[in-house]
Amino acid sequence: MNTESPIGIFDSGIGGLTVVKAIQAALPFERLIYFGDTARVPYGPKSQITIRKYAADDTAILMRHQPKMIIVACNTVSALALDVVEKSCGNIPVIGVLKSGASLAVQMTKNNHIGVIGTQATVCSNAYAYAINTLNPDIAVVSQACPLFVPLAEEGFINHPATKLIAEHYLADFRKANIDTLVLGCTHYPILRQVIGETIGSDIRIIDSAEAVALRTSELLSESGMLNRSHTTSVPHLLVSDLPQKFSKLYQLFMGSEQPDVDLVEV
């Protein structure tokens, strides 16, 4: 492991590309390896036992590439299986999106009322409320599971009428909750950020944990002297467990760049 070793990032599907994009913007010279578990997406409705197994599998795939850091770009795994990833990585730093997003939300709220949307597993775990209240016990947290947002994002239904209808249904109760900050507690959700923002209202600040993760990544690499000094940019190395052609097209759509090569791996 050295400064030119890659940063490993994984998620259940395409959602973690929001983290890839944020890290590319903050750290353009870092080599990135991304694994999307497209064969087993979504993770949100799965049991904790299954999610923990998937977390171990995903980490093992990235560890073959000798990364200098692992980023868990999946809120469900961050909530229920971050310890599994940390144990699998040994002394390699691990960053989870959940704690990063919770910390940024606490910093940004003005009225101490925060909303959280996420998968069924993330919301049922109460992990965001716990992380937020650990930082500030006076904050009221209102959570809502939005399970259909993941397949809508995976299908590329960014401005589809069905997405707007589902958003209205999921987000209606937040208007009564007096929140001033909304945490996108799933890395798929920033793909639908425009619809979510239009539905929730322009006066509510939206927290994209990908941006917080990129900041934390930069801090950790700087502190440890592990920033890549090569000053050479490279495209991410992309791995999926199913449907590489579909993933490649969605990558092009969401990242705004040329269609990349995507390698298929077994899980």
What this model shows, in words?
The chain is α/β, with parallel strands linked by helices. The chain is built from twelve helices and ten strands. The protein has helices at residues 17-26, 48-63, 75-80, 82-89, 97-108, 120-125, 127-135, 149-154, 161-171, 193-200, 209-224, 244-255, and strands at 7-11, 32-36, 69-72, 94-96, 113-118, 140-145, 181-185, 205-208, 237-240, 262-264. The strands form two sheets. A six-stranded parallel beta sheet has the order 4-3-1-2-9-10, with helices on both faces. It has a four-stranded parallel beta sheet with strand order 6-5-7-8. Helix 2 (48-63) packs parallel to helix 4. The mean pLDDT is 94.
Task: List its salient traits.
four-stranded parallel sheet; six-stranded parallel sheet; 10 strands; alpha/beta; 12 helices; single chain; 17% strand; 267 residues
User: What's the SSE pattern?
Assistant: EHEHEHHEHEHHEHHEHEHEHE
Question: Can you give the helix content as a percent range?
Answer: 40-55%
Instruction: Give the biggest sheet.
Output: 6 strands, parallel
> What's the pLDDT, averaged over the residues?
94
User: Approximately what portion of the residues adopt beta-strand conformation?
Assistant: 15-25%
Calculate the terminal CA-CA distance, rounded to whole Å. Answer: 24 Å
Helix vs. strand class: alpha/beta
Bulk shape: globular
Strand order in space, largest sheet: 4-3-1-2-9-10
